[in-house]
């Protein structure tokens, strides 16, 4: 059976990883304690969580695999069974069973977990559990390497490991899994050469089919047009210099603000054609403006990278990355929320009309034909501060409650990884009737990030001004009614 090989996009997240830039996605969640006698009180023990995870691993085989690298850079890595796999290595406790952690201590331990890279010679994921917090809640941190999943499939994995019902049965652990013997260097090299030849042949045949058919020629020309637009609009336009693009270290902190989604939904109606994502980006622009003003910086526009899912309905259970990237100007310099929303809505409408996401996807797909050294250079250029100032990623979550062994998820803050010379990323996670904005940062390179939750709250409060500003003018008064004006 053919081994699953990383795509050039998947592998790019390995190429840009460094001792100071860890390419894992993840989330930090808070769960309410359970109060069902059938499951016990409080939160799950580490043993119970390990059993729950073990019982579901048969549905997620990638969780028991590691990467194997062909020698001499002959091809992208492949997934092979991890001979040393044990759930105990990947699901660990932050504290003792009866130790109640203060919330600040849990946050510090979560930051410590997120500050450590995943081991490349093991399965690329980790879960850390705080069975009991001082307020009675339960804390959990999960991280997965970006080479394994994108944001949307990370949510799918989280849902696979959580429960849809509060009284769900505990999965039975153990499925008699035995790891397959890993291939040696010679076998990896031969398979890589064979796969590379097959890919090149398929690419040539596909191009020939497109060129020889009228419809195919139109599709090819359209793809080239969208790719050219993506190059001119996104790649060739450099990002401005910014205080968020500085040298970073390995330490990370995750801050967040959770709010009801209702104000954002209401604000969406203030501008015809605006989306919830446009409003969320307006909030981010307002928060970054506030952050600049707090530090006596002149608010300047930023070029942000927005990941866009290209995953189809048939691919919802597949892992790997099915994403493209678009770039827009975030109008941090504009004072009024209404002006920021209009500017963002115009920018997002333009890249949708031009279909630059599929143009970016075509560019990313072309990485596969580059020789290995050029792939390395292309990946690092794409993740450089010349290309963009920061990532803002909107990850949709479930609209229904999910549970961790009977404990209902209250809020979850997403982790969007930081390449080198990017001190901040922002994640947006919608769950049930609320939305969480998170800031993931190097606290030494960007100490102001501690103020980001307050800045986000202030930007959301400003949405009321947006509604008033964008509200339609009142109807004219009847002729027989005298208008009274102030002197």
Automatic annotation (TrEMBL):
EC number: 2.3.1.20
InterPro entries registered for this protein in UniProt: Acyl_transf_WS/DGAT, CAT-like_dom_sf, O-acyltransferase_WSD1-like, O-acyltransferase_WSD1_C, O-acyltransferase_WSD1_N
GO molecular function list: diacylglycerol O-acyltransferase activity
Pathway listed: Glycerolipid metabolism; triacylglycerol biosynthesis; Lipid metabolism
Gene Ontology terms: cellular component: plasma membrane
GO biological process, alphabetically ordered: biological process involved in interaction with host; glycerol metabolic process; response to hypoxia; response to nitric oxide; triglyceride biosynthetic process
Ranges that cross the membrane: none
Catalysis: reaction(s): an acyl-CoA + a 1,2-diacyl-sn-glycerol = a triacyl-sn-glycerol + CoA
Name of one Pfam family that matches: WS_DGAT_cat
Keyword Cell division attributed: no
Residues in O-acyltransferase WSD1-like N-terminal domain copies: 6-280
Domain O-acyltransferase WSD1 C-terminal: 320-463
Keywords annotated in UniProt: Acyltransferase, Glycerol metabolism, Lipid biosynthesis, Lipid metabolism, Transferase
Record PANTHER family: O-ACYLTRANSFERASE (WSD1-LIKE) FAMILY PROTEIN, WAX ESTER SYNTHASE_DIACYLGLYCEROL ACYLTRANSFERASE 4-RELATED
Similarity remark: Belongs to the long-chain O-acyltransferase family.
The protein's name in its UniProt record: Diacylglycerol O-acyltransferase
